[in-house]
Amino acid sequence: QVQLAESGGGSVQAGGSLTLSCATSGNTDSINVVGWFREAPGKEREGVAAIYTGGGATFYEHSVKGRFTVSEDSATNMVYLQMNDLKPEDTAMYYCAAGFLAYGLGRADQFDYWGQGILVTVSS
After folding, report:
1. Strand partners, 16
2. 52 to each of 6, 39, 78, 98, 124, how far by Cα in Å?
3. Among 7, 36, 44, 60, which one is most buried in terms of CB atoms within 10 A?
């Protein structure tokens, strides 16, 4: 089992920045990717970023590319999502998730472990 816990959400005005953190623990040897997903009211959960652990590749959904950066600190088992130039359409519950994938951003159903989610609200 792998446990995940998000922190760092909140409210910000458009154009502002937030950094989300995801603490991973447990049997982290069983995973090779940590993804960030978001779910806005009335919309499906979508992947926004993913990082393959151990200094591996990163992937982004097209609407956040250039604004969001996913990174990891392997010494502390932390994964971060730096979000810049936030827009009202970025408002959503954000989740970190972990799994074992071959490549790419991945779909929500491909991830085995999930955090509880954290709210990000961007006002115009």
Report:
1. none
2. 18, 22, 13, 10, 33
3. 36
Paired tokens of 13: 């005005």
- Please, are residues 47 and 37 in contact by the beta-carbon 8 Å criterion? yes
pLDDT tens track, the chain, 124 positions: 999 999 999 999 999 999 999 999 999 999 999 999 999 999 999 999 999 987 779 999 999 999 999 999 999 999 999 999 999 999 999 999 999 999 899 999 999 999 999 999 999 9
Any idea what the Cα angle at residue 65 is, between residues 110 and 112, rounded to 5°?
15
Please give the structure tokens belonging to residue 82: 């730096």
Look-up of token digits 């990163």:
58
Give the span between the Cα atoms of 48 and 106, in whole angstroms: 10
